[in-house]
Design a protein that fits this description.
The complex is a heterodimer.
Chain A (H helix, E strand, L loop, with lengths): L1 H12 L26 H14 L17
Chain B lengths: L2 E4 L5 E2 L9 E10 L5 E14 L3 E21 L10 E5 L3 E22 L5 E10 L3 E13 L6 E17 L15 E20 L2 E14 L7 E7 L4 E6 L5 E14 L4 E12 L4 E12 L5 E12 L18
Antiparallel strand pairs in B: 1-18, 2-3, 3-4, 4-5, 5-7, 6-14, 7-8, 8-9, 9-10, 10-11, 11-12, 12-15, 13-14, 15-16, 16-17, 17-18
The chains are: A mainly alpha, B mainly beta.
Chain lengths: ~70, ~325
């Protein structure tokens, strides 16, 4: 948790952030740059697979549905 | 602290949808593990429909066929079944091995995203799924607010509530309050609340980062009804009991994640994610996820992923207490 805060702070205050104009966002808008990947259904499928194998979950949004696979 | 390291791989056959705003996507998802531990085949359909620029409706339906074998303790004298429990068994008959299972899961989800005049977004979602012994209903809401005029910074708050019903077959040593001799089933329930606060920042024209903090609160029947443990081991008499696992009936978890995406070239993108998780059962984990996308042309995108996961065990599974002791849980 501590490392998360340090990383966030570094990123925000080291001056590496640029003011990206709307006409400069073509790369950011690409399907392969989407948060969660190009396919939300396969992402949800992967999350259920990992949840069935691991004892931890979360961090990828609040919606996802239940699964009797733990 | 005992650490477990696992790297899971999945083979996914995906019918990639087009980039049109309105689409119907048919997919076939496949997951296989070695030793026939788990095989999942999941045909699915997703429909996305925009209503003007202010509303988007998304609906999906998935059918999972799951089969495989899960390791548990059982009495070899009764056969290889998760229900091979009993008391005063011959300890030498107690084995820890894979027990076969199969199940089918049907899941449907519906979400509506509304965009306001300032382009903030509110997404309301419903999820419902059913298995032969598990039913789940979920409602969720997420609000995304732009923090600047250039729309390079946003903050999101999400909240979901999930109600689960678990059908527990009543055999000896299960959590049932009904007559175990009748072979009846009893419905148990569990509640889950998930809240997440996230912050997203465009770093430059080719990369962005996202930070999230979340908590998950669970209460109710959190036990795996098919998992057995061994109790009352008597080395001299060579006897032992196989009883149902009994986990605590509440769990509070906290976590945080960092994601970073970078368009390395016009056709190759990299997505990295790190997640930290901790709960009051004593489990903490670190997850590192990396995906590389290669856009071959307008129709084909290839993805290569690698995941590393390290987890500590729950307090009641601590290494200095083996399965042949009388712990409250585990």
């Amino acid at each position: 948790m501590k490392s998360l805060l340090i990383l966030s702070t570094l990123l925000l205050f080291t001056g590496c952030i640029k003011d990206v104009k709307p006409w400069e966002k073509d790369m950011l808008a690409k399907e392969t740059m989407k948060d969660g990947g190009i396919n939300s259904l396969s992402k949800k499928f992967e999350e259920h697979m990992y949840f069935s194998k691991e004892a931890s979950k979360g961090g990828n949004g609040v919606a996802g549905g239940g699964c009797g696979c733990n | 602290m005992q650490l477990k390291l696992s790297i899971a791989t999945a083979v996914l056959l995906i019918g990639v949808s087009s980039q049109a705003e309105d689409y119907v996507s048919f997919q076939y998802l496949q997951y296989n593990e070695n030793d026939n531990r788990t095989t999942v085949s999941a045909p699915s359909i997703m429909i996305n429909k925009d209503f003007g620029v202010d509303y988007t409706l998304n609906a999906s339906f998935v059918g999972d066929a799951v089969s495989g074998a899960s390791p548990t303790y059982y009495d070899t004298a009764s056969g290889a079944s998760a229900f091979s429990r009993g008391t005063n068994l011959r300890a030498s008959d107690v084995k820890y091995a894979n027990v076969e299972y199969e199940d089918t899961r049907l899941a449907a989800s519906l979400s509506l995203t509304s965009r306001f005049a300032n382009r903030d977004e509110l997404t309301i979602g419903l999820n419902r799924s059913s298995e032969s012994d598990f039913y789940s209903s979920e409602v969720s809401a997420e609000y995304m607010h732009w923090l600047d005029d250039s729309k390079n910074q946003s903050i999101s708050l999400g909240l979901s509530y999930q109600y689960n019903e678990i059908l527990v077959t009543c055999v000896e040593n299960s959590s049932c309050s009904v007559d175990v001799a009748s072979g009846a089933s009893q419905k148990m329930d569990a509640n889950l609340i998930n809240a997440q606060l996230s912050f997203s920042q465009n770093i430059d024209s080719r990369s962005y980062a996202k930070f999230a903090l979340y908590t998950i609160l669970e209460d109710g029947y959190l036990t795996n009804p098919y998992m057995n443990v061994v109790r009352n081991y008597n080395e001299i008499l060579d006897t032992a009991d196989i009883v149902a696992e009994n986990r605590p009936d509440s769990k509070t978890a906290f976590g945080g994640s960092v994601k970073y995406a970078n368009a390395l070239t016009d056709t190759i993108s990299l997505q990295l994610a790190y997640r930290y998780y901790s709960d009051d059962w004593g489990i903490s984990s670190n997850t590192l996820d990396s995906d590389v996308y290669f856009q071959y042309n307008e129709d084909w995108i290839f993805k290569l992923g690698l995941r590393g996961y390290v987890q500590s065990e729950a307090d009641f599974y601590s290494a200095d207490k083996d399965y042949f002791t009388n712990e409250t849980y585990a």
